[in-house]
Amino acid sequence: MGYHHVDTDSLEQWDDRDADVRSISAAAGLDYEGAPVGLRVYEAEPGQQLALAYHYHDEQTEAFYVLGGTLHVETPTDEFVVESDEAFVVDPGHAHRAHNPEDADAPVRVLALGAPTVDDVHPYDADD
């Protein structure tokens, strides 16, 4: 089928992370490995992060578009504050941790895109 209409509210939790994550690409029949794009909707309460860990990718570019709330993205050199209707793009090889800080007043809702969908994630240790 060439078209997929996906109601994100009807999707199941995609994996076992703390933040609520729904995979639009999986609902559209795009397998995780080797798909041209991965597309997910996250909702993170204060104190939750989007990914499972502070990390970087060898090949994958990630983009985060904030639908509501404020997303914080920690990098080795800075912390970026991304407001609603703003986007943050991370090139391959650059460590990052997208999260909603403990002291946030509200959840953050984010549309995240990763391409290509390859299993190239590596944990990043800021102390190394």
Automatic annotation (TrEMBL):
Ranges for domain Cupin type-2 come to 43-111
In terms of superkingdom, the source organism counts as: Archaea
- Matching CDD domains: cupin_RmlC-like
Coiled-coil boundaries: none
* UniProt-listed InterPro entries: Cupin_2, RmlC-like_jellyroll, RmlC_Cupin_sf
The record, for SUPFAM superfamilies, names: RmlC-like cupins
Protein known as? Cupin 2 barrel domain protein
